[in-house]
Amino acid sequence: MCWTRASRYERRIILNDSHPIHRETCQGSTDPDSAVPDSPGTGLNPAISSNEGQAVLSIADLEIAFSTPSGMATAVKSVSFDIRKGEIYALVGESGCGKSSTAHAVMRLINQINAPHHRIAGTVLYKDKNLLDLTEDQMCTIRGKEISMIFQDPLNSLNPLYRSGRQVYEAIRLDNIPKPQAWQQVLKLFEQVRLSDPDRRIGSYPQELSGGMRQRVMIGMMLSRSPNLLIADEPTTALDVTIQARILELILSIRDTLGMSVWVITHDFGIVAEIADRVGVMYAGVMVEEGGVFDIFDAPCHPYTRMLMESLPSGTKHDRRLLTIPGTLPDPFIPFPGCPFHDRCPDRTKICAEKMPGMQELTPTHKAACWHVSDRMTGE
After folding, report:
1. Phi then psi dihedrals of residue 368, to 5 deg
2. Which residue, 47, 72, 277, 354, could crosslink 87 as a Cys pair with Cβ 3.0–4.6 Å?
3. 169-208, pLDDT tens digit by residue?
4. One-letter-per-residue 3-state SS of 201-253
5. pLDDT digits (tens, 9 = 90+) for 74-102
6. What are φ and ψ of residue 2, in 5° steps?
7. Which residues, in sequence order, are CB contacts of 136 under 8 Å at separation 6+?
8. How far apart are CA 40 and CA 193, in angstroms?
9. What is the end-to-end Cα distance of the chain in Å, rounded?
């Protein structure tokens, strides 16, 4: 699959046979959750399409380990990346690779109550402050106000005892907005996230709404305090492909309209191709490749990324079985000195099992952690 620096619409056409979300988005649909027609996103943000751009959030050498009856399990190991102003950054990887744990550590949602004896090290810089060093009271001024997070299942995130509008209203009132203005803002937010019949939905309980509607309510709640960074953890999980396409278009529209940064966590390369500006690929708690979305799709350099890309179904692969990655993930209880992917890698050599490779810069916008990436780039 060869990608060019095309518009998002052209990328959808290329992906038309490889992912149902893109078929729905290209062909249009009759989404009952959306009262307002979706407008396409503008594509890559020119401010961050190069290696330049102001970092809204900088994560450096983040390590997370959890205490279990079997010992300490390392979930995230030496992960570093930046999220720039106005960009959509996608963190990709299979289930259990540490994507959500990374986001929960940034939001300070891992604590001694839900994860006794855990260990978190590294730095998470936001406005020159290390979020990991802040007190809980200091973090409360940032969490929800400046950095907001949409969780995987909106039904579990919304309180079934309170009406949807009331829950968004309470978030707005945290900023001491007068009650009449707060209710007006709730209605405006429901219109912004394209909820059908917003006057009626304000009085609906979460369980009375469809999955797509609940996700829109959650997005509206997270936008209610005008955050600088929105974290979306698997925002389309458990939604059918028609609603998934609409939610992705909504995220693009929000970024283009409000100029906020968005960090999307997903295991779906179709979603990455649809909305991301830059991509980070994680495997077994380690960042193995990072680059612009075109860098990753044009020339995936880490064997794990390359094999994931080759496993995507498309119209050109009907003549053979889809590629599968042999083997299993490494045991998180057993420290490994080398590359975590070496047992499953077709290109492995002796050094892969003995020493962890560092990130190597391939281009100013593309880097990968592999001992043989330079050989692969030169064709040797």
Report:
1. -150, 150
2. 277
3. 999 999 999 999 999 999 999 999 999 999 999 999 999 9
4. HCCCCHHHCCHHHHHHHHHHHHHCCCCCEEEEECCCCCCCHHHHHHHHHHHHH
5. 999 999 999 999 999 999 998 889 999 99
6. -110, 125
7. 108
8. 14
9. 21
